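Discrete fold record:
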Amino acid sequence: MKSKCKYVPKAISGINDCGVYKNLRVAYLFTDCKSIYDEAVSNVRENLRHLDVSIFTHILSGRHYMVIRGRAPLRVSFGGGGTDVEPFCVEQGGAIIGSTINKYAYCSIIPRDDDQITVHSLDFDMTVKYNAKENYVCDGRLDLVTAALRAMDIKQGCEVYLQCDAPAGSGLGTSSTVMVSLLTAMARWKGITLDNYAMADLAYGVERIDLGISGGYQDQYAATFGGFNFIEFHGRNNVVVNPLRIRRDIINELQYNLLLCYTGNIHVSANIIKDQVSNYKKPDAFQAMCEVKALSYAMKDELLKGNLHNFGRLLDYGWESKKRMSSKITNPQIDMLYDEAKKAGALGGKLLGAGGGGFLLVYCPYNVRHQVARRLEAAGGQLMDWNFELRGAQSWICDEDRWDYRDIQVQMPDKEYTFHV
């Protein structure tokens, strides 16, 4: 008698589909023949020997499970960077203009039936384990996750997978965006509804207060709200996010005239922020912060009007002012790349984030864009493809029946076709 077929994993070449590894595929097909089943189970365990395979017992036993995903976009700031940091924003009021881009931080959560929590950082190739019944203690290993688990009061076992499209210290707000993606996924899992202000404030509290990581407010709010925003800061619980209604043709032209160049260096933003705060009372640094704040208002006006070349030149004004806030914001390599871009026809630009390394944003008219790009690459810069992202943090639950593979049939005029997936 012909063996009855059932769909169980045969071999795993990778597991992006269930939230484990990126850019890999899963191929499945078993018969209920015991020898084939046993061989396939052995293959699965061999391919997953570097992971905790217990999560796949649900699949091998025919049980379904769900995957909760959270995603938050990284950001580029155009003007006002640094004015969102206390004490300046509390005493003087800060303002930032920026947008999110189509590079993201992802969090995938797979609930378990026990108390074990296993966190996999795919970017750092690091795995940390916790017990949901014990206190979460920050020990320097994936402390962002530890603090998020504690803040969301996670009491059930799960597998957590983290991945980000940009390296830490790149100036795109990576650590805060990872935190937002974590909290967004955890909130979805627990059935907690938070509005954007509450989510951004929670992310700020966990990162800045609970963990004591120096920094401002903009990254958490940018990642949560998404899109083009003009954000005003007057301290915690006094943040106003003003979404900017910009015509689509202006957005398209702005993106075409901007280049995003990786300098090859990363930075520790907390150290630069501390130096900036220590300079707060120095007259020149204080005046520079005031100028950077004023420039954010001017840039908002020019962007809304579509005066993009003026916007590009204001980027240059802002960069020159920001360098006066701390001697650690730039270095000879960054200055060299920026000078090369200006010589090739760029109107302005700035280093993203706190400074010291990461990505350089450069504005150049379309007719010299290719020349600026060629000059930056010749000087050692690495250009990145990107676009604006108008949506903020999102979460969703993957289909629990994704592992239940069945034949796919479609009726065409000539006959019925069957695809064995």
